[in-house]
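Quick review question:
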């Protein structure tokens, strides 16, 4: 049986972050910068620019996410952190209309991206990544965590469409649906202050 562990994404783990992001899908080109930029700014960047931006973010800290390892090999990634720096969220009309939390509140965190290398999909990494993200947020003083998952309704979906995570993964960790962004895309939240 494989051993799954998780670690915060730090400068010392940069190569592991890159290995996790580049195992198939959009992670290699996105560099998990998509949540950090408004759409107009995103469209003006290249992959090398996104890589530089992401490296600067990791180097500056605090860690913007968590890496999952399978038997010591970097296999997955989750972005978790305060909502204010994740500029896309406040500028996404559906999220702005659905949330009851002020966007300038640093105690509200968001989970905006999952990536799992192709060879490790279906092995429960997203569940472990989410568990580690909740613990990290709680330990960092977060009051509430939001997520914007896909409700697959048990149907198979293309992996690139699931980077937000799946509703079943979030609800298994205690998140509850708070609003609907659009059909099949709820806003979920977990209150850490209780």
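Suggested answer, residue by residue:
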């Amino acid at each position: 049986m494989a051993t799954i562990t998780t670690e915060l994404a730090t400068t010392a783990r940069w190569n592991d972050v890159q290995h996790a992001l580049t195992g198939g899908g959009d992670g290699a080109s996105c560099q998990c910068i998509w949540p950090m930029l408004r759409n107009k700014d995103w469209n003006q960047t290249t992959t090398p620019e996104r890589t530089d931006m992401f490296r600067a973010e990791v180097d500056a800290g605090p860690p913007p996410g968590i890496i999952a390892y399978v038997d010591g090999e970097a296999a997955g990634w989750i972005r978790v952190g305060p909502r204010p720096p994740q500029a896309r969220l406040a500028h996404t009309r559906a999220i702005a209309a659905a949330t009851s939390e002020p966007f300038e509140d640093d105690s509200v965190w968001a989970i905006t991206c999952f990536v799992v290398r192709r060879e490790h999909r279906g092995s429960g990494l997203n569940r472990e990544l989410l568990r580690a993200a909740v613990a990290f947020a709680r330990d960092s003083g977060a009051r509430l965590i939001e997520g914007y998952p896909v409700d697959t309704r048990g149907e198979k979906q293309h992996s690139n469409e699931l980077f937000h995570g799946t509703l079943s993964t979030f609800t298994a960790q205690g998140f509850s649906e708070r609003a609907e962004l659009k059909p099949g895309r709820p806003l979920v939240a977990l209150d850490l202050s209780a």
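Why it works: Strands lie at 4-8, 65-70, 73-82, 108-116, 144-147, 176-182, 185-191. The mean pLDDT is 94.
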